[in-house]
């Protein structure tokens, strides 16, 4: 991204106490559009920033474990960012336990 700059916007994954029920992509767009020099990209998180157990988007297998949101937060954030003409990069936390190593319990 030569000549551009970006920012990160983090939000909690599903089932966390402060996790939002809905992400409003238009509000994200408005927030970054108010910058004097609008960023060319925004980094979003697919996994919870502090706990790799929870996710911000849906997945056919992970949905059975109850660790994904009922509302696809990530896709609404991406849509809002793209509607503003910015690029969205998706970050997956690689530190900390994903806590899925033991498999699904009773939900094969």
Which terms would index this structure?
19% helix, 2 helices, alpha/beta, 108 residues, single chain
Topology:
Layout (H helix, E strand, L loop, with lengths): L5 E3 L16 H9 L7 E5 L27 H11 L3 E5 L17
Helix pairs in contact: 1-2
Give a description of the structure.
This protein has helices at residues 25-33, 73-83, and strands at 6-8, 41-45, 87-91. The mean pLDDT is 79. Strands 1-2-3 form a 3-stranded parallel beta sheet, with helices on one face. It starts with 5 loop residues before the first strand and ends in a 17-residue tail after the last strand. It is built from 2 helices and 3 strands. It is α/β, with parallel strands linked by helices and 108 residues long. 19% of the residues lie in helices and 12% in strands. The relative contact order is 0.25. Helix 1 (25-33) packs across helix 2. It has one domain (6-91).
Could you provide a short overview of the structure?
This protein has 108 residues and is α/β, with parallel strands linked by helices.
Proportion of residues in helical segments: 10-25%
C-alpha end-to-end distance: 42 Å
The helix count comes to 2
* H/E series: EHEHE
Q: How much strand content do the residues show?
A: 5-15%
Total beta-strand segments: 3
Shape: elongated
Unreliable stretches: none
Strand order of the largest sheet: 1-2-3
User: Would you tell me the overall average pLDDT?
Assistant: 79
Assembly of the depicted chains: single chain
Q: Give the biggest beta sheet.
A: 3 strands, parallel
Overall tally of domains: 1
User: Helices and strands: which structural class?
Assistant: alpha/beta
Radius of gyration: 15 Å
